[in-house]
TrEMBL record:
It is an enzyme of class 3 (hydrolase). One of its GO terms (molecular function) is metal ion binding. PANTHER family: CYTOSOL NON-SPECIFIC DIPEPTIDASE. GO terms for biological process: proteolysis. The keyword Mitochondrion does not apply. It catalyses: Hydrolysis of dipeptides, preferentially hydrophobic dipeptides including prolyl amino acids. It comes from Sinomicrobium oceani. Keywords: Cobalt, Hydrolase, Metal-binding, Metalloprotease, Protease, Zinc. This is Cytosol non-specific dipeptidase. The keyword Metal-binding applies. Transmembrane segments: none annotated. Belongs to the peptidase M20C family. Its cofactor is Zn(2+); Co(2+).
Length: 487
């Protein structure tokens, strides 16, 4: 299947993407891909360094006649979101991504594709090894851990980068030029609970929620997609009062930046209420599926009998935590008043884990307005603290404020119109690009973001448009020809 992808146009980009996707590169586990990039730069005979955080920087001199142009930083992140379907047999730590083409789309077999941000990385690699692309001096910046904390960008030291213009290749619509993004903060609620003996005269069920689309917790948060954790909590909420339902364990969702697609819980109910529970569960299933039928046609909700567990959660904590999850905001909190259609503030209840006397709930709160981000984080904190949780807010990073007077924006706008005969969409996005963080230590840097069309990022439905990659590659090469001269 790799050979099929390698034959696609532009060959230079797809070949580097295939090379990259053969290397495991989960966030916070980038050792192999860092080594891969260092070897790539060194084989080309280019200045190649790794900073103290693990970011890789490769510098390439300007092509003849372009020495008087400003140095350009081409930036993408090395890590990718690792998500797979429940039935997919795949080890992200040892296996390369299995890719195939389907019409205009490149997809992966039951896993994330890594087009976010692997296609940006591949395009930069293709520029670095090219011998026929005119360009100014290039500073390729490959950051780490973008997906789970942006620690690579946060660890960049002032003065390390030499470029004056930064082209971030991490936008997912090929007709869009990005000029701003949201900041974010991780909100985590934790508490211990006592495990109790399973009540007598009970039967056990495994409740499963699966088949949701999932997606990017920033770019897709406004679409009204189902959140497996919120659906599961809805199923459990009235269970004790009506059927004596007790929770033995629960696991839903995964990474903070992925809308959760699946959740599974083991519960017990009173034998005397078994038939009523099964009937009522069926009613809830039909209601939820009906509500979400447009956006989530593949949603499955099941309750199947299983063996009795050994322990259940203490009742008071169960009641408090289900109420807290119900109260905790998920989805869009506020739309921007300044940019029509832009989500300003949102939250993703990304992961809920209840097992062996411990509860952990992980959220990612995003906003382009820092005060609104704090407001929503405080609202979440209040809900979870009322349930006895200890709540921490960590990994906060700033948004990227739009600059409509950016000189490089003028270059990209004019180039896009000339190449494609239409105006690009100039917009901010609700994703957490690294530009805002980089701008803290490099406040005078002129930054812009663009990329090929990618759908379903952060989920196993991730796919990249082949025609769009061709458009993106043409656009990038033409931009490099018109970088402004040094002042």
């Amino acid at each position: 299947m790799s050979s099929e992808i390698r034959s696609l146009e532009p060959v230079a980009v797809w070949n580097r993407f295939a090379d990259l996707n053969a290397v495991p590169r989960a966030s916070k586990k980038e050792e192999q891909v860092i080594r891969f990039m260092l070897e790539f730069g060194e084989k080309l005979g280019l200045e190649t360094i790794k900073d103290h955080t693990g970011n890789v920087i490769i510098r390439k001199p300007a092509t003849p006649g372009m020495e008087n142009r400003k140095m350009v930083i081409l930036q993408s992140h090395l890590d990718m979101v690792h998500q797979k379907n429940e039935e997919t047999d795949f080890d992200f730590e040892t296996q390369g991504i299995r890719m195939y083409s389907d019409g205009d789309w490149v997809k992966a077999e039951g896993t994330t594709l890594g087009a976010d941000n692997g296609l940006g990385v591949a395009a930069i690699m293709a520029v670095l090894e090219s011998t026929d692309i005119a360009h100014p001096a290039i500073e390729a910046l490959f950051t780490i851990d973008e997906e789970t904390g942006m620690t690579g960008a946060q660890g960049l030291e002032p003065g390390l980068l030499k470029g004056e213009i930064l082209l971030n290749l991490d936008t997912e619509e090929d007709d869009e030029i990005g000029i701003g993004c949201a900041g974010g903060v991780d909100v985590t609620a934790e508490r211990d609970y006592k495990e109790e003996e399973v009540p007598v005269e009970t039967v056990a069920f495994r409740i499963t929620v699966k088949g949701l689309q999932g997606g990017h917790s920033g770019m897709d948060i406004h679409k009204g997609l189902g959140n497996a954790n919120k659906i599961m909590n809805r199923l459990l909420f009235d269970g004790f009062e009506n059927y004596g339902l007790r929770v033995a364990s629960l696991e839903g969702g995964g990474l903070r930046n992925a809308i959760p697609r699946e959740s599974s819980a083991v519960v017990v109910v009173d034998k005397i209420h078994k038939d009523a529970f099964v009937f009522e569960f069926g009613e809830q299933e039909r209601d939820i599926k009906h509500e979400l039928q447009t956006m989530e046609p593949s949603l499955e909700i099941m309750a199947k009998p299983v063996d009795l567990p050994e322990k259940v959660m203490e009742l008071g904590v169960q009641e408090g935590i289900t109420k807290a999850i119900y109260a905790a905001h998920n989805g869009v909190y506020r739309m921007s008043a300044d940019m029509i259609g832009l989500t300003e503030t949102s939250n993703n209840i990304a992961r809920v884990a209840i097992k062996d006397g411990k509860i952990k709930i992980s959220c990612l709160t995003r906003s382009s307005v820092d005060s609104s981000k704090t407001d929503l984080a405080n609202a979440l904190r209040a809900a979870f603290e009322l349930a006895g949780c200890e709540v921490t807010c960590s990994g906060s990073y700033p948004g990227w404020q739009p600059d409509l007077d950016s000189p490089v924006l003028k270059v990209l706008r004019a180039k896009y119109e000339k190449l494609f005969g239409e105006k690009p969409e100039v917009a901010a996005c609700h994703a957490g690009l690294e530009c805002g963080i980089i701008g803290q230590n490099y406040p005078k840097m002129d930054m812009i973001s663009f990329g090929p069309t990618i759908r379903g990022a952060h989920s196993p439905d991730e796919r990249a448009s082949i025609v769009s990659v061709q458009k993106f590659w043409k656009f990038l090469k033409e931009i490099l020809k018109d970088i402004p001269v040094k002042e």
